[in-house]
Design goal:
Layout lengths: L3 E3 L3 H11 L5 H19 L5 E7 L4 E7 L4 E7 L3 H8 L6 E2 L1 E6 L6 E7 L8 E5 L2 E2 L3 H11 L5 E5 L2 E2 L1 H10 L4 E4 L1 E2 L2 E2 L5 E2 L5 H6 L3
Parallel strand pairs: 1-12, 4-5, 4-6, 4-8, 8-10, 9-11, 10-12, 11-13
Antiparallel strand pairs: 2-3, 6-7, 14-15
Helix pairs in contact: 1-2, 2-3
Bound molecules: 1-O-pyrophosphono-5-O-phosphono-alpha-D-ribofuranose (PRP) and uracil.
1-O-pyrophosphono-5-O-phosphono-alpha-D-ribofuranose (PRP) binds next to strand 4, strand 6, strand 9, helix 4 and helix 6.
Length: about 210
């Protein structure tokens, strides 16, 4: 079964409080999503392999470490996943970026795909899928199913808030995909929204409500 890591660093918890607050406007909301994505990414990349490299400091020659040329790709789920991209690129500036467009039907809560563009060499890459919200888990499950058709080396899923229902469904559908989030909230309400959550992430990022 996949591993779930809740990255509950005090900085993340503080920023999450601001993010959840209904009074937080789009401009601050976007900044916070990016900052939290950077902080979660720090943990999600903890297992990157290192190799020895020889350099000269101003004092002497020494052997030290660098990341062992691992090829990564990130794939935000549109729209809201786009809000996490710059925050991840701040730590991983040379990754390739794919995109998957999904929207959740408000009645059935089922995801509908409208766009998919992935790096050509994704089969040689480790992929991190980005979406701030994992509610029923349907969008993450579908996005990962699409990406798996292109045989990436590994996949991780990074979100900000997850519901227990979504995590369970995602783990059952993709037991090989490790999950990183900032909070596991209480439950889903009758409209499929995470409680207490933060509302509709896409609408809050882009000011569409
Ligand atoms: C939101 C969110 C996830 C999805 C989560 O997107 O960003 O993609 O819902 O719900 P699920 O786990 O039940 O599938 P939405 O469908 O509202 O689209 P948007 O990002 O374009 O607003
Ligand atoms: N999508 C969101 O943006 N928020 C939720 O709470 C559930 C799905």
């Amino acid at each position: 079964m996949s591993k779930i890591t809740v990255v509950d660093h005090p900085l993340i918890q503080h920023k999450l409080t601001l993010l959840r607050d209904r009074e937080t406007g789009s401009m601050e909301f976007r900044t916070l999503v990016g900052e939290i994505a950077t902080l979660i990414c720090y943990e999600a990349t903890r297992d990157l392999p290192l190799e020895d490299v020889e350099i000269e400091t101003p004092i002497c020659r020494t052997t030290t470490k660098e990341i062992a040329g691992k090829k990564l790709a990130i794939v935000p789920i549109l729209r809201a996943g786009m809000g996490m991209v710059d925050g991840v690129l701040a730590l991983l500036p040379s990754v390739k970026v794919g995109h998957i467009g999904l929207y959740r039907d408000p009645k059935t809560l089922k995801p509908h795909e409208y766009y998919c563009k992935l790096p050509n060499d994704i089969d040689q890459r480790d992929v991190i899928v980005l979406d701030p919200m994992c509610a029923t888990g349907g969008s993450a499950i579908d996005a990962i199913t699409q990406i798996k058709l292109r045989s990436p080396k590994t996949i991780k899923f990074m979100c900000i808030i997850a519901a227990p229902e979504g995590l369970k469904a995602l783990q059952e559908a993709h037991p090989d995909v490790d999950i990183f989030c900032a909070s596991v909230d209480s439950h889903l309400n009758e409209h499929g929204y995470i409680v207490p959550g933060l509302g509709d992430a896409g609408d809050r990022i882009y000011g569409t409500k």
